[in-house]
Amino acid sequence: MKTEKETEVATANYNGFEHISGAEALLKCLIEEDVDTIFGYPGGAIMPVYDKLMDYEDKLKHFLTRHEQGAAHAAQAYAMVTGKPGICFATSGPGATNLVTGIANAFLDSIPMVFITAQVVSNLIGTDAFQETDIIGISMPVTKWNCQVKTADEIPETIAKAFYIAKSGRPGPVLIDITKDAQVANLDFKYKKCDYIRSYNPNIPLHKKEIESAAIMINHAERPLILAGHGILLSRAEKELRAFAEKTGIPVALTLLGLSAFPSDHRLFAGLLGMHGNYAPNILTNQADLIIAIGMRFDDRVTGNLKKYAKKASIIHIEIDEAEINKNVPVDIELNNDAREVLNELMPLVNENSYEKWIREFRICDKTEYDKVIKPETKPGSGELRMGEVVRKVSDLTGGEAVIVTDVGQNQMYAARYYKFANPNSLVTSGGMGTMGFGLPAGIGAKVGSPDKPVITFTGDGGFQMTMQELGTILHYKIALKIIILNNNYLGMVRQWQDMFNEKRYASTELVNPDFEMIGKAFGIPSKKVTKREELTEALEEMLSYDGPYLLNITVEKEGNVFPMVEPGSSVSEIRLTY
Amino acid sequence: MKQEFTISLFTEDHIGILGQITIILTRRQINIDSLTASESAVKGVHLLTIVVRTSRELIQKVARQMEKLVDVIKVFVHTCDQIIYQELALFKVTTKGLMSGNIIDHVVRTHHARILEVSPEYIVLEKTGHMSEITEMLNRLEPYGVLQFVRSGRVAITKQVKELNSYLSDRDEENRLKADSLEVMN
């Protein structure tokens, strides 16, 4: 056995280089990029990396999930709450393909992530070897960039490039596929961070003239509206957005992924946009004479029918990804740049203003929505429990300070609508992809990334069963995630559409469910069922005060529908309050 | 309204870029009429010339999505009047047919074609020009027995003034200045 000193000599620096294996070089690269947390799952081809990982346990904490998809979602949620890139390991073949849903999810929601997959030894590539799959080809349409590494020498430079690409410009997932022989072979290691790629230019110069024109437009508007999205959070422009809104007096509506970028209780908060968003911002989008879209991409769930979208408004689009500008909605002024930089430039050019009459229109709509939808949903008084009242109760009990993670469907829409987010980056949800099964593994990643805050996953009985093996990860690492199953015994959102558009033909949407408390208990998680309104507050308080993971299975109204709703093909101003 | 566009894509010389480009075109249901991959005037920079038929609105969106790819340096979209372009075609025609008609001399002269090879069985002709001219020559030869016909993708030179090298040297200069200013700060 070598002594510590001998090992030191063996890897001693000469000319600033260390002679180490590709696997070790990979881990050193990650440490150089300030990584301390990895989610992943081992397998044959990635064994050299996992073997070395044992020597770096003090610097790199690895979480073994129960499925690679879980690792991908957990790493994404970790990235969303910390602002650091999410790191995920998987082996070749099925390990790599199991990541694909998670990669695509991160791609559509612009999350900086570095996926490391292993590949069979390089001379076997292309021969249909055991656990060989063309993950480069498969992941090409869902990564910002990907690259296969076949020799150890290429590892440092490729990893440096991966981090630069994942984090800069419009962030996104990158995938590096490393052959087993490249992991095993030695190289002379030296790390240099990447800050320049000739063919890739994320630092676009500011266009002063267009910014001046935008300011003039803003100063002359009578019914302006800000539509802010995830770009605010990604460029850390929450303070700038707030200052800009307060100076100009312009109301701020948020997209689903933009939620928590502007305080929910602010007098200028206009609400959530989109299909199940609030009444006021949807209706008044079509009354606005100026729309300032910041870090959002006019997704179809936000715009409804494009032919009838914001026709009275001039549009200023502040967006870092040039390909998003004029993609769905033609704009009058394009400011192709980082949200924070543009807001900083605009700030001195815009006038102090207030739009009392215009804001009053929002409050009138808010009152209508409160009377017809919010009040009956959050304070039903009698009848079965409703999803909205559960979420609002959690919001009140946590004072809006929790990190909220959702699955997809009705539970997600209720969480987005009724939780009052107090802090930035406090909603983790699957926006563009709408990936069912996201909630539980994402909850794990969110809790790992924000250990000092309460982290609560709202999920449905359907989505929970898609990835519930991750309860094993919670057990393994004692992750104090609070899980709330809003259980209506249905795939609720699809059932709602069948109710509204398919004459209540509930094709394959009713579920026969297992005993969720028993499942929770099998994984060592205190679990309780709530069926009555009287039990709700106490059960939630007990869950929140418990030091550790906790599962609440809450029986809610079986056939509750989320409203308001912009029906597919309808204009945002045709949003319906009831059905 | 659909019209013809020539896309010139300058890319890094990396494996897999063509795949990324075709994914973008396939998602938008745009067919590739012709495609040429070659080196460019700038060392290490690859040039893809793609001819497609689509609307002006869509081609602009697609070009932005292509330019967004990390390994793509620059994308230019041109209509026919903005470029000087050629295609090349080879024809293998039966010698018997061509000789019996005694038209070989006429074809070569009127179509500005070249004879590449003559054997007792066949003659190989080469023609460079626009697609319509090549089609015209093909139609002319068809009665005499065309054994093989192949047409290359389009190659195009742009009429624009700012060349790629100046764009690239601007980028490198920016990076050098940035590095210098960082050094000064340190």
Q: Can you describe this structure?
A:
- Chain A is an alpha/beta fold.
- Chain A has 3 domains: 20-189, Rossmann fold (3-Layer(aba) Sandwich), CATH 3.40.50.970; 208-361, 3-Layer(aba) Sandwich (Rossmann fold), CATH 3.40.50; 379-568, Thiamin diphosphate (ThDP)-binding fold, Pyr/PP domains (Rossmann fold).
- Chain A is 38% helix and 16% strand.
- Chain A has 24 helices and 20 strands.
- The longest helix of chain A has 23 residues, at 356-378.
- The N and C termini of chain A lie far apart (75 Å).
- Chain B has helices at 17-27, 56-67, 95-101, 104-111, 131-141, 164-185, and strands at residues 2-12, 32-39, 45-55, 72-78, 83-94, 114-118, 122-129, 146-151, 155-158.
- In chain B, the strands form 2 sheets. In chain B, strands 5, 6, 7, 8 and 9 form a 5-stranded antiparallel sheet that branches. A 4-stranded antiparallel sheet of chain B has the order 2-3-1-4, covered by helices on one side.
- In chain B, a hairpin with a 5-residue loop joins β2 and β3 (45-55).
- With 186 residues, chain B is α+β, with helices and mostly antiparallel strands.
- The mean pLDDT of chain B is 91.
- At the A-B interface, loops of A face α1, α2 and α6 of B.
